[in-house]
Amino acid sequence: MVGTSLESFDFYLYAYFSAFFVGPLFFDPLGEVGATSVAFLTIALAFVVRPVGALIFGYMGDRLGRRATLLWTVALMGVATGLIGLLPTYAQAGWLGAVLLILLRIVQGLSLGGEWGGSILIATENSGPVKRAFYAAIPQLGSPVGSILSAAVFIVLTAVLPAEQMAEWGWRIPFLLALPLLLVSLYLRWSITETPVFTGLVTEGRRDRVPFVTMFAKRPGAMAIAIGAALLGIGSYSLMNTYTVNYGVAELGFSFQDLLIATTIGGLLQLVTIPLFGAWASRIGSARVVLWGALGTLVITFPMYFLLQFATFPILVATMIVGGILPTMAWAALGGLMNDLFPDRFRYSALSFSYALAATISGFVPYLTLQLGSATGFAWWHPGVILAIMSAITLVSAWLAARRPVEPELATEPETATVAA
Predict the structure, then answer these.
(1) Dihedral angle, C-alpha 264, 266, 270, 276, nearest 10 °
(2) Is 208 helix (H, G, I), strand (E, B) or coil?
(3) pTM of the entire structure?
(4) Is residue 309 helix, strand or coil?
(5) Cβ–Cβ contacts within 10 Å for residue 203, how many?
(6) What own/partner pairs with CB < 8 Å and gap ≥ 24 does 302-309 have?
(7) Which ranges carry the Major facilitator superfamily (MFS) profile domain (predicted)?
(8) DSSP 326
């Protein structure tokens, strides 16, 4: 959980950074709208390459082990994030900084492609079947913790530094913090042991030669369900933490600091709700918790954005809280749902790729919402359309997942993993 929190901190730094600084610092010649659009596309870029990272690290996770793979993912993320803090801006070196920024975003995306699946398996494969859903929820705390830490850093910096100094050099500080935090992450992951499930795979000689091919051959239906089930949990973060920050400043008149405070309050609440939803998933099943989260989000989507147009700070905070709790149900139980869909011998690849593909789609959420807003004159309901679509897809996927039998945590025979999808 701590390792995933630090990796999420690295990744979310860029989400906050892009909403306010990427455009003018690296893409200024494109104009205000063009620079903002490209800034959001650089977010999408890291999501686009995540499936490639999932293939690479999924193979490593199923062949070399969960622990060794997580050491590689956190090392790549920490180095890439630290180097972003050293980049020259457009004013300093023209387009060179933008090109290097894009390359480092690709490295971040590759790293994150293998992170989530491994962190879930480290937790679930060290637990029994009764506590599996709860254990699967704990690494999910990494996302709000990373979001809180990254927002807190920017809140402090924007409070103590004038806007001119923040744009000139202050924005580099959060990224440079990734380098000492990398040492903490490496130490934590070096100290953990391999999971008994993977150890059993090695002992019994059941490691799959090409897990990526096998997962589609044996579980195509489960792959589709997993991708749909992950869409709301990931996409709602992109919508609330990136697009809403930019939209709130540009269209609703909030200050950047107010929006960071509101998202931080929502993130703090998730530190309580995620374990609670994980415990609930242990009682009624992960798929059912995801289903209720998606249904609740669908119901409150348009009322929530209608209230947001009145642009008061209490309403903003309430929106972030209500809009965070219900999608968090789908997020908290996601690891348990996906873990239950796949057998052990290609579980790392299946979790990583299906999650990464959903994240790739979600990476375009800020850009697509911006385009819909531009086409509708930024009508109050335009973000609700995107959120409602994601909620409906996750709702159907969770319903289908609830109807499938749960895979055993450790398959003792190779044939266990060859059931038709």
Answers:
(1) 150
(2) coil
(3) 0.83
(4) coil
(5) 9
(6) 302/381, 302/384, 302/388, 304/384, 305/380, 305/381, 305/383, 305/384, 305/387, 306/380, 306/381, 308/252, 308/380, 309/252, 309/380
(7) 1-406
(8) H
